Amino acid sequence: MTDRDVLAPETGSAAVVAEASSAVHVTATATGLIPAWRSRLVPPILVFFGFVGLWYGYARFVLDENGRKTALAYPHTVLTTFFGGGPEGEQPWQLLSALWLTFVVALVGLLIAIVLGTLFAVLMSQAQWVETSFYPYAVLLQTVPILALVPLIGLLFGFGMGARILVCVIISLFPIITNTLFGLKSADRAQHELFTLHRAGRLTRLIKLQFPAALPAIFTGFQISAGLSVIGAIVGGFFFGRGPRDLGNRILLYSNRLRPAEMIAAVILSALLGVVFFQFFGWAGNRLTRSWYKGER
Questions:
Q1: Cα 59 to Cα 213: distance, rounded to the nearest angstrom
Q2: Confidence band (pLDDT; 50, 70, 90) for 7?
Q3: 77-289, superfamily in CATH?
């Protein structure tokens, strides 16, 4: 009896077991589809209701007992104010108009930051002297507090849309530069050698090797900067205190007039806008990379 005769039954048994395991896995996945969705949806919903309960409890038993009833509006008051209008002639469409202005400022600032950040990262990846010369200033741009720059930007460029877009660009630029540069440098060395063997030019190497390898890191930078861009739009409107009435401007207005319901509604809209920006770039990154890139979950 040969070694092949001994191993053949074991190999056949292993193949049968693997096939059976695969079938069981497929069946379990198909039958467990709804429970999987339920397991993803139920915990966030429970956390949300828990947060609302804590909100009610703190407003009722802490603030009310200390005589600060107007410091925090109840959740139902916020909803009533947003959908039914607030005091002093405030109407829901005014918040929606402010949301639209904030959306435009954040989107334009983010697109400019994407173009500039990607361009700088490409230049840094192609020439070491460019990275050595400009990367320290990119780090400096990130470390300077944006709140300290906003008043200066207002004095230099006014308090209109252009100044607010500039704030968004400044606060969004660094993550795009760093993540894109990291991605462009992360291409496999063996693939670089293969391109060198075929005498590929620098542009061919950049387009066909480095950019595809960098896509996951690039979209991670886009996601981070998307949220930061919304923050920049809110901060600009809040600290300028004048010009177009965006969400930041309205948060400042409601804070000065002690109107917590409208202020909380504006803050919630700001958070939802940031979530929309973040999720969009996450979805776009998955669409572009899911066919060849398997990220760990």
A1: 51
A2: very low
A3: MetI-like (1.10.3720.10)
